[in-house]
Every structure is written in C-alpha cells, then in structure tokens.
Design goal:
homotetramer; alpha+beta; L-fuculose-1-phosphate Aldolase; Aldolase_II/adducin_N (chains A, B, C, D); amino-acid biosynthesis (chains A, B, C, D); methionine biosynthesis (chains A, B, C, D); cytoplasm (chains A, B, C, D); Aldolase_II/adducin_N_sf (chains A, B, C, D)
C-alpha cells in the first residue's frame, strides 16, 4: 500500500484520473456485475475505450458513449450520461437485462444516456454486439459537406468495412473491395437523442447493410458484432471521413473514380 | 525507496517532469494548505489539469492558468505567473483568503498571475467555483473571424453549455438546445491582463448568462460552479471554436441555419 | 504478484492493452522463436513500433504492417493480417524461414498479411532488413496530388533519405543533399495487396535507388537495411509528404526551386 | 529486480524505448560527466526534452538537437548527430570544454552534430545557456511565406519573447508588449549546417536582440540564458509561427494592426 501511494505522489498528473480507484479501495464493495479481473469484461473495456476516445477528441466534454453486450449473459453495459468520459470507472456503469430491458444496475448520481434506446435498437435489430457513438468533428463536417449519404470510393481503407454480403462458404462477412463505394446514410438531428429512434429504424430498412449512421451536425453511431469489430469500423470510417474533408478542401470529390481527380486539380 | 529511484531510471523521459517531487521528498516540509492526499484538493487538481492543458496546446510556453475555490474553506488557489504549466507542483501555488482577499500563501520565486483580479471577479460576481484561462489558437482565430460576438448554432455539442436559464422545479441549470445559438462575447485585449477587468465586469452586465469571454488576439476565460463543470464547458467551447474555424475555411457560416449550408457550398 | 495486479487496477486505461500479457503469464508456454528479453528482438520491436505507429494514425483500424529480418537467423518476422496493431503481442507473429520461404511459425486464429510477398520481395531484391507499410493520409493525399512520381526539393529533411550512391571510400550510403529532389515512384493500387508484386518489381528496375514506393489511394512501403534506418526513412518521408500537401494548399509547388515560391505566392 | 523486469513485460510498448537502461544496468560503468541523479543535469534534461520534442514532431527522423551549458562547470552538452532523438540516453552525449572547446567526451559510434559550431557561437556571442534546434514544419512554412523576416504583431503570446531591452532597475529582460511586432530573421540554408555560421554571426550583428533565427526550408534555432527560458521561447515562437500560417491561410496578414483584419476578410 505504501508503495502505491508513494508512487502516485511522483506523478501528479495521474492523481486526478485515478480518484475513482482511491475511493474504490477505501469504501466500495465488490459487485460481480461490474467488477472483473478480465480486461475483456464490458465494464473494463468501456472505461478503457472511453479514455482512448477522449484522447482522440471523439468524446469532448461529456459527449459520445459506448455500449457493449456481455457475450455470456447478454446484458447491455452502457456508459452513463454527463460523465467525463476519460475518468469513467466500472462503478459508473448502467447494466440492462438484454431480454426484459429492465435495469439490473443503476449507478447513483448519474442519468441513463439519452442514447440508450438507440443502442438497444442496434442490439435488437442489427444483432450488434457493441455500439460506439462519437462527436467526431470529421463526422460533423462530413454531414455539412454531403446531403443524404456520405460517399467515398477507391481508397484502400474502405476494405476494413463490411459490404453486408456474406460468403456462402465460410459464413463470414465480405468486406468492401477497393473498387467499391462506401455509403453511410445521414439522418437529421433532433432536440433529444432518443427522438432519433424513428430515423434510425427507417435507416435500418433503407440501408440494411450499413454498420454506421451519421447524424447531421451531431456525430456518428457505429456498430459491429463485437466491440473489437465496432472499434475497427469506427476507426476506419473516421479515417475516411477525415480524408474526405481534406479531399473536399483540395477540390477533389471523395467519391470520384480512379484517376478522375485529374479532372478537378492540376496534377503534378 | 530503492524501488522508486530504480523505476525512474527506467523512464528517462519522466525524470525532468518529476523534479518537483524529488525536491519534495528531500527538503520540503509538509504544508496543510497545499499538500493533500485527496486528488480533488484544488492544489492537486490545478497541477493535473495544467499538465493536461499543456498537452492540448492550451498553455504553450507559460501561458494560461487555472484558479479553483476550495469548497470547504472558500480559499482561492491560483497558478502562478511565468511557470511552465506542465511542470507545476503544489508548492508553486498562491492561496488567497476568499473573504479578505489577502494572500494566505505566497510561493517564493514566483509572481502572482496577472489574471488574479479577473479570477477574483469571476468568483465574486459570477459565483464561480473555478476559472480556466487558455491561449487556445481556436480562440485567437475565432476572435479574428468574428466581430463582437462568437456565434455557432445547431451543433449537438452546444448542448454542453448552460443557457443561463434555471429549471424552476429542479433548480438546475438548463443547457442550450440543439436549435439554439451559442453566443460568446469578445472583448479587446489590453497591454496587461489586469487591465481587462473593466471590460470583464461590463460583460457580466451585458451577457449575464455567459460562462465564457473571448479576449481578442489573446485567448479565452471559461468559468463554472465547479472545476468539473468549468473543464467540460471549456472543452466543449474549444471544440465549437475549432469547428467554427473549419466551417469558415469551407465557406460555411458557423451560425447558419440547419440545411442553410447548401446556400454557401455545393453539397454532394 | 500482488503488486502488479494492484498496480494495474489503478490504471483502468491500461487493462485492455495488456490483456495479452495477462494470458501469457497464466497459460502460454515460452517459445524461443518469439519470446526474448532483448528489446531489439524483431518480435518485440514489431509490437513496440506497431503501437507507436497506431498512435501516429498510420495503422488505423487494422491497416499497415511491419516486417523485420532477424539479423542472426535471417528469419522474417511479419505482423499478421487483421489484428489491431496497437494491441499486438509476440504470440501474434508469423515467422518465415529466410531461405526456404517456409513458415517456421503460424499463429492460430490469424491469416498471413496480404503484404507478405511484397515484404519478401524487398528482403530479396532490395537487401532490406526491414519494411514498414502504413496507410498514412499524407501518402494517400500525395498520391492524389502527384501523377507518376512524388517530388519535393530543397528541404533540409530530405537529407535523411539515401541518394542511392555509395561513398567509394567508406562504403556508406550517401544521403540526398539539400539541393537535390527526392523522387518517390507512385504505383496504382489493385484489388488485393499481393497483386502489387509486379508493379513493385518493375519499380525496383525503374527506380533502383528508391527506398520507398507510394501506392495510390492506399499508402506507402518504406524499407531500409535495418529497422532503425527504415523507421527514420519512413518518418522523414511522411514529414515531407505532409509538408508537400501543406505547400500545395498554399499554392507552392513542393518541388519548386529555392526562392521560386515567390512566383506562386505574394511573399511578405 | 524481479519487480522491474516483470513490470516491463507488462508494457511491451515501453521495451524498445528503455533498451538503453537495460544495457546500462548490465554493462556500463558510471561516468560522473554524464550520469547524475539530478534531473536538472544537462545530460538528463537533453534526453527528456528530445523525447518531448520528438512527440511534438520537431525532431522527426533524426532531425533537430539541443545543447546545454552546465551551469557550474561551463561545459557544453551536445546531442549527437544521426541518433533517434526519442531514444537518446546520457551515454550518447558529446561534452565539450567551454573554454578550450576541446571535447571532454566523445561517445563511440556517433558523429558530432553538424550544428556544433552554431551552438558554440550562441554560447559565446549571445551568452546563451542553451540552444534548441528543430525542424518544425511551422518554421519551414513560415520561411516560405515570409521573405527576410518573420513578423507577427498584436498577439498575447508574443509577450513570452524578450524585447532585448533590459529594465535598468531590476536588470531583468523586458518582454515584448502586446502592441509590439515580433521580428525573427530568416537566413538561407546551405548544403551543410556548419556553413550557416557566417550568416548566423551576421544575424547577431543585424538583429542583436533576437533570440531566434529561422533557416529557410530547414527549421529554427532558439536560444536563451537557461534551458527553461529557451524552451519557453521555442514553444511560444512555434505557437506564433503555427498561428501565422493559419492566418495566411485565412487571408489575414500576421503582422496586421489590431482590427485591420476586417480589411482582409468579411468579419461576422
């Protein structure tokens, strides 16, 4: 114990972030629902990724969120509303029964995320294992530059995104090819996040294969069968949105054909 | 002890930053006013956040600062002038009595921050619990692009900022809505920071609900009832100023109405 | 052991990333091919650099890769396909015999990188000791702005890149001079990375002195006699591609002569 | 000892960077000239700051460098040429006698930095205590946008830079005022860094009060009476060069008068 406290004193920059732990070791009791030594437990993964996403400028202020379905119990773990995402701890987590949709755990002092119905819709209607929601500026800018659908074509990175087609032999998702166009639908923002549910459900019908929806002037929702997949999809899409904004600034349409950029700029 | 020194040798990059601690364990005596095991103590929080803000490029050189009111004693903790913000330690802190405005503690070798009267004005006239001052380039650029007031509208992130209205039932601050416009007044810079006091007080009258003031060609002051709130407000406003600059570069007015961006750019 | 676990609990953000180690200490057996205390062992260096490159946005999603030839055994160590690069561990590594090109080690659950034939070609035909492949946005944007060859001239940083000429006295590679132009060939992307092999081999003939090839709308391959050199070349080239994009945005041709920029912009 | 190695295994990303320490504890002998427990010893500070500057993109590849005069012995500590700056260790350091200019220590396997004569000139003719040299892209771009002198005016951050005037009462350097213009001379680059010496000495005559010189298409040299001051000057100048490039992109001359920006852009 002495070693730990002594160690922390050496790194004043860490003290603030570890306040939760401090409390935990002093006062809190163990809760099997949220406390686990397994780093892949949803409560641990949500805390770790929220910290990482905060550093990426995807969860500025208290924006954004993550929800993960427990692979054994099927319970939904959901980051709360209004919490500073880089300081989140397992004790802050809401847990919802995957079948009854009743809360198994409600943390004191927090409100449920207004995104909760959207997360649940992705779990239920898209068979998602995890959903990531960010306020990425690349998503906001893309939603200003594109009308109904974000489009980018012929970039290697789109191969990280599933096409929606399934290989009949292996049963695995077939990714987009380099020669494909990635389409991500854009829906209009509403006053409250839970009001997005109708547009989201409509999008599921109109774009049954998409793994993401951009919300205009707001951010993006990305889902996948596991949190590992959802994370990879989100990173690849953010990379592509960032690239699309830069291409627009240079005068190159992000969905133009291979070598068609020469129509728009004087190539060197 | 052996463990600690041995450990530090493994991480040469940490040595420079922890010099304060080294001195502390050797020579300094314990001061209850500034030394605390509680990571939420103002002296600890100021050090931790200054480090974080330096990494965000908000406290380049020795710019910027933070002041926090102790929630129990009401004393004001103030980062000193001229110190490298990423290396600040509790021993560098000025402490002022919240009532008499007399210094309870003056660190040797430092001058008080020229921002001190501005911080005190926010504590007294805005009932602030904490004030953050940064030299954010997004604030400087926004002050060049806007005349008297920075304006941005219809972006989800503005919901992180209070509207100034209070919910009559709960007594809580009501945040801005997605359909609102965020207005932040811009005041002219002066030769010395303490000369900003008159403009600041005038702004309190003209914009009684604002939680921030941009200083042209200088930076921004952001306050809130607690340091947690002030931090969230500052992050959200910086995000919005960054977005506004990018929108200006793309030709889109940051305060244009929803879907009005199509008037200014050819949407895809 | 208690110390370690206790320590990890203090830093929830680290838990996720160290999952591999957790497994290792519990279940895995020691493999001399990939486990070494020497931090310069290829398996360790690949993991460390993939983490660093991920933080640089060069390996977003699961993109990019690194391959290193073991200096004693001549075996090729290759990062697998589809793995999150910031979480890679020695156990994920493919190892190929440098002579027979047969796999000495195939990790369960991973596929070999589609870049493998390209890496092998660089080892064999360029006498490379290491190859770095990134999806750097600076490379993708450069490939859109330039036609057949990326060119930048008269920038100090190009002195980090070898000219291809060898000093007859010392036998060492002579770097480019400040007054030289750096040329990096650009090849067209294909549906699958292994289909790039013909273009790559052709480039070896056409540009025998290049240490890098840009793949249009995809990324870049950079190689060197050692991983230290390849890393330095890759960093310097990425710096130069980033600078070239910024110069294009300002209207200055990246390969214009010294003081010729005044032809293109109004200098202050 | 067990603890340390066990700990390192948990963090594969750290292994590469700490290779020097590993060697040190096993094989190297203690050298009083470069080994010190004092984190402010020049050899320790140079290593710590090179790591920090690398992370800032100021020392990409093996570019840039730092030299510090030992405050007691007057010896010059100089980072070597060609080393990866983020991995530097005290054992890599050149040490030169401040009077005789003879090397007190020459590390095996490294060449002296080509900047050495420039560093020595700053120590001797500017009474510098430390010199920082970076390949900052903000410096390179500024050198393309400005002709003979980089100029920026009426920005709060310029108050971090000394005016060259001395307060007759306190003997302290008087900083620039908010209403001043910061001028930094730009010299032409040469094939070899040591050939910059004549231009540098001429600049000392023409701009006796400058604390920095930009080298066109190359980078910047910044000096100060101590390494703390030089670091603050370098950060403030880099901030101002970054801001100037952004102002140019928006069409605003960086040295325009207060409120004159309205002549160049339509303010909102």
């Amino acid at each position: 114990m002495y070693v730990k406290l002594d160690f922390l004193k050496n790194f004043p920059q860490f003290i603030y972030r570890t306040r939760s732990t401090y409390k935990y070791t002093k006062k809190m009791s163990y809760e099997p629902l949220i406390h686990s030594d397994d780093p892949k437990h949803p409560a641990n993964v949500i805390c770790a990724l929220c910290k990482q996403f905060y550093d990426n400028n995807w969860c500025t202020g208290t924006g954004g969120g993550i929800s993960i379905k427990h692979q054994t119990t099927g319970a939904y773990y959901i980051a709360p509303s209004g919490v500073q995402k880089e300081q989140m701890k397992p004790e802050d987590m809401f847990v919802m029964d995957g079948k009854s949709k009743e809360y198994l755990r409600i943390p004191k002092q927090f409100k449920p995320s207004a995104c909760t119905p959207l997360f649940v819709a992705c779990f239920q209607h898209r068979n998602a294992g995890a959903i990531i929601h960010t306020h990425s500026q690349n998503a906001v800018l893309s939603s200003l530059l594109f009308d109904k659908v974000f489009k980018i074509a012929n970039i290697e990175q789109i191969k990280a995104i599933p096409s929606g087609k399934v290989d009949p032999e292996t049963g695995k998702l077939i990714p987009l090819s380099f020669f494909d166009t990635l389409n991500i639908p854009i829906i209009e923002n509403k006053a409250h996040e839970d009001q997005l549910i109708d547009s989201l459900l409509q999008t599921f019908e109109d774009y049954p294969h998409t793994c993401a929806v951009i919300v205009r002037r707001h951010g993006i929702f990305v889902w996948g069968p596991t949190i590992e997949k959802a994370k990879v999809f989100n990173e690849a899409i953010d990379y592509l949105m960032e690239l699309a904004v830069k291409m627009c600034q240079l005068g190159i349409p992000p969905d133009c054909g291979i070598d068609e950029e020469a129509k728009f700029i004087a190539k060197r």
